[in-house]
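Data deposition worksheet. Section B asks for the primary sequence of the deposited chain exactly as it was used as input, without tags or linkers unless they were present during the calculation. Section C holds the resulting structure in token form. Section D is free text for depositor observations; keep each observation to a single sentence. Incomplete worksheets are returned to the depositor.
Section A, Depositor: J.P.
Section B:
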Amino acid sequence: MYLIRILLNKLRALVLPFIALLCLGYLGYHTVHGDRGLQAWIGLSDRLDALKRERAALQAQHSWLRHKASLLQQDRPDADMLDEALRRSLYLGRRDEIVIRYREPLPSD
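Section C:
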């Protein structure tokens, strides 16, 4: 009987630290692997960097297109730009011309 009482007292002394250890393990696991954990944060950081690069590329394309549009919208439009736009939209060319269609590259900023 005395031995059982000693074992129960020691067991009671270990229950609270064991529960605390389980809680800390649970919280630690979800700190790393949870929906808002470290791995999710790293993934969102990578996605944010990719979206920032895409935004910069779109802004460069936007400014390039705005520049080309401004060349056509002035009081005196650029003759070459106007000729190029008309030929492209109407598919016109002279008999002695060879038309090579290509996609214009974006400015490399």
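Section D:
Residues 2-64 form one domain.
The chain is about 75% helix and 0% strand.
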